[in-house]
Write a structure and sequence with these properties.
Blueprint: E1 2-7, E2 10-14, E3 17-18, E4 22-36, E5 46-60, H1 63-69, E6 73-80, E7 89-98, E8 102-104, E9 112-119, E10 124-127
Antiparallel strand pairs: 1-4, 2-3, 2-6, 4-5, 5-9, 6-7, 7-9, 7-10, 8-9
Length: 129
Amino acid sequence: MAYNVYHDPGNVMIDSTPIVGVESIVVSVRHKEFRAVGDGEMHESVARFTAGRTSGAITLIDPAGAAAAANLTGELSFTWADAKAQADKTVTIAGISIGGYDATAAREAAGSATLPFIAETAPVVADSQ
């Protein structure tokens, strides 16, 4: 399993729709296990990982913006400064599908919202131009 947290991403877009106020993006890539045992075997004769599954969540400070983005689909892209202070990175994930939102609008406090997503591909990370 790969698990990445991108803090303070910039230029967050789903296709041509900007997502503003993003605090972090969490991405998880998991592979399901396939295991099989034959008659009388003491150990599994087949143990493989199957195709990967990508999912995650976008956390932002704007509950109203989250509601507007709750059903978007397309390509998620954003820029991110890596921890080694090298070149900024551009991250893209194709086939994203936002699955609603969870929002908190507290009294006299900053609001926050989470957009859970699934995707058809793993993230692609490249140096920004």
